[in-house]
Structures
1.
Amino acid sequence: MRTTRSTTLLLVAATAATLALASAPASGHDDDRADYRTRLDPLNKPGSEGRVRLRVEDATLHVRLRVKGLDDGPHIAHIHGIRQAENECPGFDADADGNGFVDLVEGLPSYGPVQRTLSVGLDDVGRRLRYRRDFTALDDGSAIAALGDLSQYAIVVHGVDLDDDGVVSNADVNGDGDQAADNEISMPALCGEIEHHH
Ligand SMILES: [Ca+2]
Ligand SMILES: [Ca+2]
Ligand SMILES: [Ca+2]
Ligand SMILES: [Cu+2]
């Protein structure tokens, strides 16, 4: 189990532009406050729903996330995207292998790589999520300000029970060694495009 989880975390993390641990000190003087919100819509988990509110204040990102209708098990959440790129939630035309699920990799052209992980490892577990968290850096160590306008990004909540055992845990449901198409932990459950909230 430990090995499986570690492998999965690496897979998810590998979608980030960089894993650099060295962090540049926050350099901005961004004293503006900007509010955003997202409605999360089901991608591979029908019946799920969620809302995220985000506020960028000075150099801090405040996040309030609520999701319900999930399968039991761990749910990783990310801000995905690239500045000035296509930062959208995929439709089912993104299901390139036709297996009925838009997996993490198939969705990347739409929502882009991971910029900020909102979850705490695999500790956000259960059928519903509810948390408030503050962040002062992106996953690559850059200041939050490097994201720019958050309406260029999307939020993805991962974790779908694919083998119907009632829990998100299997990183390779078909047992073929490929941990993308049928990975319960990285499988996107919901996605929402971030919008300004005035
Ligand atoms: Ca697929
Ligand atoms: Ca399962
Ligand atoms: Ca597989
Ligand atoms: Cu993600």
2.
Amino acid sequence: MESDALTERHRFADAERAALYKTVFNRRDVRGQFTSTPVADEVLARVLYAAHHAPSVGFMQPWNFLVIRSQEKKQQVHQLFSKANREAAEMFEGEKQTAYKSLKLEGILESPINLCITCDRTRTGKPVLGRTHMKTMDLYSSVCAVQNLWLAARAEGLGVGWVSIMHEQELKDTLNIPEHVVPIAYLCIGYVEHFKDKPELETKGWLPRMNLSELVNFEQWQGEASTSEQEQLLETLQALESFPTNF
Ligand SMILES: Cc1cc2nc3c(=O)[nH]c(=O)nc-3n(C[C@H](O)[C@H](O)[C@H](O)COP(=O)(O)O)c2cc1C
């Protein structure tokens, strides 16, 4: 087959690809704009299916999805956050601490659904194909489920916020999660007033988005471009700098 035909053959139609990139570049971590509008089970089911179809090492599917709607449970988790957030603020100094304290870093009580995505480290027994040497691969698999859900939710018009500022064991105790299971992500999910164009940590001056071409190395860690082929990729990255803003 002609190589041109091969590059086209499995590619999605232009509008479909645009929809994918639109989802990727417009996904945001949402903390402050949640509304109480209920999320229909059908919508929640679709995003859970998206999560469940994430890649996983050895097809281990180590995740569970703990759907939390009761105000009582949310209050308990919010207390864990509040305590940890006070501790976290103390870890920064001066202006950084002032900036930290001004940030809203969760939407636990305002979002209609909280969802804890976990990783069962014993699922499918031992050994697990692909996890024979790098034992953390099960954790990364559950993270893939988080990202799938996050993107699907954005396409559905749902905001998602990841809350990680709490003690892991306290969260486990609160949600009755057994020893061999790790809480990977505690997510706040709901419809939102608006989605921000950029990460809040960027617009509020916490950190800037890094330059992608400075993060691409060749052949080894920190390997710099030394061939025309390598330099061409860097030039292409720079030329496409505005690509994410096109969607
Ligand atoms: C593993 C992980 C943990 C995070 N934990 C928190 C958190 O505890 N509180 C918070 O406000 N945002 C949290 N975030 C969201 C990031 O701050 C956010 O993704 C980043 O600033 C980029 O913004 P964006 O997601 O809107 O593009 C977390 C994100 C990830 C991937």
